[in-house]
C-alpha cells in the first residue's frame, strides 16, 4: 500500500516504521526511540531512531494506551483483544473476540520485558476495555475504559484513577460513551478526554488528585464540561496536549489530527492520509517532533510540529 500523503505545512515528514500490527500508544523516549503497542500482535514494541523494530514485551490480549510511570516502567491499558478484519486493505478492530482475556492495567518492565497485572477490577466490577492513560505529578494515573462491542450492544464506558503500586483504584465517571483519549492540562488542573462515537472533547476540573468536579444533573450525559467537536463525519481517538495548553485529537474516518484551544475553538486540522489515524505524542529535545500512529496501514510517522508539545510527567 502506498504511503499516506504528507500533510501540508508540516516539514520533515517521514515514515519511521512499517509492517506494524495496528500500532497505538506511542511514547517518545529520551534516547530517540519510540515505544508503542501493536494491538493485533499483543506486544509492546520499540522503534529505534534508525527504524529498527524490536519486541520489548508480550502482553497478549489487546495492549492499547501506554505511559511511563514514576518508576520508569511502562504502564499499559490492555483492552483484552478484538476480532480483526481487513477492509479495503486496512486492518480494522471489531467486537469482543471469543478468546477475550478481560480488561486490565499492566506494568511492563522495559529492561526485562516482565509483565505484571495491576488491576482487573474496580469495586468488584471487571474492567472491560481499558484504552488510554495519563500520569499526574503525584504518581497516580487516570485512564479510560471504552468498553467492548458486542453483536447487538456495547458496554458503557468509565473513567478511573489509580495508584501506580497497584493498591487503589476508584471510578471517577460513569457512564461515558466510548471514552478514549485522555490528557492533562499543563497545570494539571484539567482532565481532558475524547469520546470516540460522539466525536466530542470533554473536560473535568480536578480539585484534588483522583477527584473530578462534575456538573449538576441535568447536564451532559457524563456530567463533564463540553469542550468541542467538529462538523462533518469523524470519530475521536487519542489526544495529546501542546505546551500552550491546546489539545490535539486524532480523528479516525477523516484520518487526521484536530487541534482545539482549551475554550473549544477549532484551531487547525492536519490530514494524515490514513483512515485509522489513532494516536499522537510529542518528543525530541525541544518537544517539537510529533509521532503519529497510522494504524490501518501499520505505520509510525514523524514530523516537525509548529509548536512544542507538553512534556509529560515522567516522560524522561
| Quaternary structure state of the chains depicted | single chain
Q: Which term fits the overall shape?
A: globular
CATH homologous superfamily descriptor: TolB, C-terminal domain
- The helix tally amounts to 0
Strand content: over 45%
Helix content: under 10%
First and last CA, distance: 35 Å
CATH topology: Neuraminidase
Record field, number of beta strands: 29
At a glance:
This protein has 316 residues and is mainly β. Helices cover 0% and strands 48% of the residues.
Description:
The two termini are 35 Å apart. The chain has a single domain, classed as 6 Propeller (Neuraminidase), CATH 2.120.10.30. Strands 18, 19, 20, 21 and 22 form a five-stranded antiparallel beta sheet that branches. The chain has no helices and 29 strands. By secondary structure, the protein is an all-beta fold. 0% of the residues lie in helices and 48% in strands. β2 and β3 form a beta hairpin.
List keywords for this structure.
four-stranded antiparallel beta sheet; Neuraminidase; five-stranded antiparallel beta sheet; single chain; 316 residues; 48% strand; globular; mainly beta
Can you lay out the helices and strands and say which pair or pack?
Elements: E1 14-17, E2 23-28, E3 34-38, E4 43-47, E5 53-58, E6 63-68, E7 74-78, E8 84-87, E9 90-93, E10 104-108, E11 115-119, E12 121-122, E13 125-126, E14 130-135, E15 140-145, E16 157-163, E17 169-176, E18 179-184, E19 190-195, E20 200-208, E21 211-213, E22 225-229, E23 239-241, E24 247-251, E25 256-260, E26 266-271, E27 277-283, E28 289-294, E29 299-304
Antiparallel strand pairs: 1-29, 2-3, 3-4, 4-5, 6-7, 7-10, 8-9, 10-11, 12-13, 14-15, 15-16, 16-17, 18-19, 19-20, 20-21, 20-22, 23-24, 24-25, 25-26, 27-28, 28-29
Amino acid at each position: 500500500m502506498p504511503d499516506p500523503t504528507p500533510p501540508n505545512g508540516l516539514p520533515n515528514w517521514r515514515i519511521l516504521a512499517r509492517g506494524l500490527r495496528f500500532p497505538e500508544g506511542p511514547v517518545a523516549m529520551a534516547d530517540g526511540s519510540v515505544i508503542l503497542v501493536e494491538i493485533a500482535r499483543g506486544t509492546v514494541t520499540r522503534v529505534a531512531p534508525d527504524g529498527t523494530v524490536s519486541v520489548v514485551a508480550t502482553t497478549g490480549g489487546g495492549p492499547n494506551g501506554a505511559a511511563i510511570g514514576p518508576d520508569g516502567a511502562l504502564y499499559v491499558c490492555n483492552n483484552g483483544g478484538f476480532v480483526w478484519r481487513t477492509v479495503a486493505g486496512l486492518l480494522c478492530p471489531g467486537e469482543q473476540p471469543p478468546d477475550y482475556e478481560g480488561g486490565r492495567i499492566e506494568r511492563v518492565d522495559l529492561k526485562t520485558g516482565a509483565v505484571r497485572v495491576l488491576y482487573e477490577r474496580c469495586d468488584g466490577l471487571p474492567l472491560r476495555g481499558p484504552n488510554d492513560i495519563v500520569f499526574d505529578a503525584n504518581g497516580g494515573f487516570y485512564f479510560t475504559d471504552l468498553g467492548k462491542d458486542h453483536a447487538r450492544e456495547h458496554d458503557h464506558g468509565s473513567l478511573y484513577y489509580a495508584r501506580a503500586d497497584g493498591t487503589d483504584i476508584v471510578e471517577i465517571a460513569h457512564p461515558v460513551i466510548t471514552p478514549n483519549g485522555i490528557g492533562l492540562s499543563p497545570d494539571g488542573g484539567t482532565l481532558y478526554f475524547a469520546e470516540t462515537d460522539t466525536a466530542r472533547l470533554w473536560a473535568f476540573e480536578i480539585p484534588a488528585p483522583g477527584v473530578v468536579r462534575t456538573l449538576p444533573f441535568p447536564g451532559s450525559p457524563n456530567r463533564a464540561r463540553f469542550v468541542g467537536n467538529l462538523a462533518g463525519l469523524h470519530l475521536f481517538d487519542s489526544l495529546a496536549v501542546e505546551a500552550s495548553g491546546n489539545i490535539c485529537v486524532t480523528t479516525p474516518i477523516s484520518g487526521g489530527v484536530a487541534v482545539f484551544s482549551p475554550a473549544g475553538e477549532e484551531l487547525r486540522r492536519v490530514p494524515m492520509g490514513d483512515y485509522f489515524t489513532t494516536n499522537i505524542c510529542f518528543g525530541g529535545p525541544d518537544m517539537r517532533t510529533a509521532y503519529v500512529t497510522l494504524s490501518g496501514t501499520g505505520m509510525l510517522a514523524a514530523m516537525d510540529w509548529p509548536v512544542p508539545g507538553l512534556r509529560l510527567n515522567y516522560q524522561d
